[in-house]
Amino acid sequence: MRDKQAAARDALARSGVIRLLHQYRPTLVSTIFVGLDIDGSDIDVLCEFDSAGSFCRDFSAAFGLKAGYALAPGHGRVVGRFQQSGFDVEVYASTTPVHEQAGLRHYRVMQRLVNTGGESFQSAVRALKTKGLKTEPAIGELLGLSGDPYEAVLAIEGWSDAEVRERLAARHQ
Hints:
The protein has seven helices and five strands, in the order H-H-E-E-H-E-E-E-H-H-H-H. It is α+β, with helices and mostly antiparallel strands. The chain is globular, with a radius of gyration of 17 Å.
């Protein structure tokens, strides 16, 4: 796992994505860096913008010649993709400040769960992901969360440390 993290960090450095998009506050939120990745997991980066047009121009200028380049503008958001050193890199940019974006909030919850649940939690999530679940639905299944898994994972932000430990312990019974 550490080798994959090192390779992903090298790919990020080689791509220049953090440097080239610095004015858009790029923030890394990839499951690779919390050990919840499986083969084929991509490197995820969040950005924020005031102008979708400016972001699209800058992204295209920086990555338009890369393999796998794609750019999909939408209402208040843009998703850009490219490949670097064997990794797919996905950049999600929005008018929402990065610190408020669900992707960063999910990432912080994942960090907290991994810090508390350790390798057994990581292994359980990865096992569910290899069966086809995305990360948030896998977490929801492991913790017995009901409703929309993406919203349910955000609810964990409000849990106390004791509640997190209790939920993680309950899945071992």
